[in-house]
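hey
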């Protein structure tokens, strides 16, 4: 019952963050003004091309509202995304450049909720929720010698929106563990120790 309640709280928190307001405004000089109503210090803002190559990266320095002008018209014709990497989510905003005309498609906004990894009493708990079904690859590594990790478990959770997993680890191995979860082209790594 405690695990179900914890999942419900996590999902309520994630869904409340999904209503963040963003606006893209074309300025008189042709630049695009990007505005987010709620960012946190340490969030990462990136511009990526269609191949996932990072063209621009900025660490948000101040929590609250974010405003910045970008000259996107100088980019070569093609598809791009703004990616806002927050503590619990990655939000992508696609746009297209065609003959120096920039077009945003707000309907194609995607939100990826990051998995949550907790550890207590030699048990690792992994939970995740995303709106569209996907396959999750879970790998657990044991720190055998300083920076060398040995894989001790791997599994795939197929075609699901929500999952919760519990992994019991050996009580005599009180060292660092690394939990790696991959889905939708992203990899998330958490280091836990007991």
């Amino acid at each position: 019952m405690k695990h179900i309640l914890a999942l419900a709280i996590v999902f309520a928190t994630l869904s409340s963050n999904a209503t963040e307001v963003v606006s893209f405004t074309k300025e008189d000089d042709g630049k695009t003004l990007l505005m987010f109503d709620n960012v946190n210090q340490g969030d990462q803002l990136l511009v990526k091309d269609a191949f996932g190559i990072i063209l621009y990266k900025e660490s948000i320095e101040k929590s609250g509202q974010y405003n910045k002008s970008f000259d996107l018209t100088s980019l070569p014709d093609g598809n791009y995304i703004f990616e806002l990497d927050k503590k619990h989510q990655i939000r992508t905003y696609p746009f297209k450049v065609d003959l120096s005309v920039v077009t945003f498609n707000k309907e194609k906004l995607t939100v990826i909720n990051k998995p949550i990894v907790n550890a207590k009493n030699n048990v690792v708990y992994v939970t995740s929720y995303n709106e569209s079904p996907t396959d999750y690859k879970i790998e657990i590594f044991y720190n055998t010698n300083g920076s060398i990790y040995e894989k001790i478990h791997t599994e795939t959770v197929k075609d699901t929106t929500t999952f919760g997993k519990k992994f019991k680890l050996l009580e005599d191995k009180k060292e660092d563990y690394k939990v790696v979860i991959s889905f939708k082209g992203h990899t998330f790594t958490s280091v836990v120790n007991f």
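The CA atoms of residues 37 and 64 lie 7 Å apart. The domain at 115-193 is CATH 2.60.40.730 (Immunoglobulin-like).
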